[in-house]
Specification:
single chain; alpha/beta; 4 helices; 41% helix
C-alpha cells in the first residue's frame, strides 16, 4: 500500500493506494497518531485508488475512527469506488463512517 500525506492547514488528507490490509497498519497508525499529536482538526482518507479492503483493513479503519473520536478529531472517508462501498454495505459498516463522494467535498466540509 502506498500512503501519501497532504496537509491542508487543520485538515490532513491521507491518500491511500492499493489494498487496505494488515500490511498498512503500522504506517497508517503512525500517520494518525502524528496528526493527532500535531493538533489537526480533521483527517480525510482519500480512498480513490483503493482496490480492496480485507477484514483486517476494516478493523484498521474502525481503529482509526475510534482513535479519532477519542481524540476529538473528525474523520472522513472520501472517493470510495463501488467495490469498496459494497464491502462497507455488506459488513454494515457503511453507517459507521462519514463518507464523501469527492476528497474536495470532504475537506471543504471540515475546513
Amino acid at each position: 500500500m502506498n500512503i501519501n500525506v497532504q496537509d491542508y492547514s487543520n485538515v490532513i488528507v491521507i491518500k491511500l493506494e492499493g489494498v487496505i490490509s494488515v500490511e498498512a497498519e503500522e504506517a497508517l497508525k503512525s500517520h494518525i497518531t502524528q496528526s493527532v499529536a500535531n493538533h489537526r482538526k480533521a483527517i480525510v482518507f482519500d480512498m480513490t485508488h483503493v482496490q480492496f479492503i480485507d477484514s483486517q483493513g476494516l478493523e484498521l479503519l474502525i481503529w482509526v475512527r475510534d482513535y479519532c473520536r477519542l481524540s476529538l478529531i473528525q474523520f472522513r472517508l472520501a472517493g470510495l469506488d463501488e467495490h469498496c462501498l459494497k464491502i462497507l454495505e455488506i459488513t454494515r459498516l457503511n453507517k459507521e463512517f462519514n463518507c464523501a463522494d469527492e476528497v474536495t467535498d470532504a475537506v471543504k466540509s471540515l475546513a
